[in-house]
TrEMBL record:
<feature type="coiled-coil region">
    <location>
        <begin position="22"/>
        <end position="49"/>
    </location>
</feature>
<keyword id="KW-0175">Coiled coil</keyword>
<protein>
    <recommendedName>
        <fullName>Transposase/invertase (TIGR01784 family)</fullName>
    </recommendedName>
</protein>
């Protein structure tokens, strides 16, 4: 009978330890998931910023090429305004 009491208290102790471990595990898992979410969000923002910068550089390059080919500045301005309106639609 005395052994049963030790066994029961041992099971209770093991349950408490497992409960603490489970709680710590779940907290760590939540932390890691939050970190992953933050990394994905930052990566997405970085990609968007890079694409925006690339488009701006390409526009500048095109405008410079148009000017180098002898197009008048007012013609370039008119074309870029027309293209901008089309892109906004």
């Amino acid at each position: 009978m005395e052994d049963e009491g030790k066994l029961t208290s041992g099971i209770t102790l093991a349950h408490d330890v497992n409960g603490k471990n489970k709680s710590a595990y779940e907290m760590r898992l939540k932390f890691l998931r939050d970190q992953l979410s933050n990394l994905r969000s930052e990566r997405r923002a970085g990609l968007e910023e890079g694409l925006k910068k690339g488009r701006e550089e390409e526009r500048k390059k095109i405008l410079c090429n148009m000017a180098a080919k002898g197009m008048k500045i007012m013609d370039i301005v008119g074309l870029t305004e027309e293209v901008q309106k089309l892109l906004e639609e």
